[in-house]
Amino acid sequence: MPLLLALAGLVLAELSAERVQQLYGVQALRVYRDWQQLLLQLRRDGNEINRVQNVNQFFNQKLKYVEDPDLWRQADYWATPLESMAKGAGDCEDFALAKYFTLRELGVAPQKLRMIYVRARIGGPASTITQAHMVLAYYAEPTAEPLVLDNLISSIKPASQRSDLQPVFSFNADGIWVGAGAAPNSSVDRLTRWRQLIDKMKAEGFIT
């Protein structure tokens, strides 16, 4: 049965077990089936916050944090959700992207979700050490304070409670935002990694 969500002209497709195993092996198939079960369960739950919480928990539990040089032997690699399921691991971008595509598939409106690149302070409140990081933000309403879905902590907190994160820019399938404007500043097609990710997902058959 085909899945229903359109993503910037793309539609997620429900792959057969044989196709998933052929592409990425038994590990991917096991997590993919758990993911399908999650979708089935959450489609029965009309509470959007419950969907956000459960998707965040699912990937934080199913994936282990591993940096790209160790996992992919590349300095920066955006994995498809299926690749992350196959590895059982990913870095911050992979967590955020898997959550994003899953919530979009569950019917969460595109304007409610953005990946946000941040500078994350590490080492405590007095630390001056930061590192690049990505989280997923959920906006219940256009002007609402976003909730932050982060692989580094299990709880979802409002942005005002994440003083350790300094936003740089945000994006989704509709565009790129720099600053707090209501409309995107530029097309997401400017992000080479995004274009490559979509091409890989098409090649997998995960989107059509």
UniProtKB/TrEMBL annotation:
Gene3D superfamilies: 3.10.620.30
Protein name: Transglutaminase-like cysteine peptidase
Organism: Vogesella indigofera (Pseudomonas indigofera)
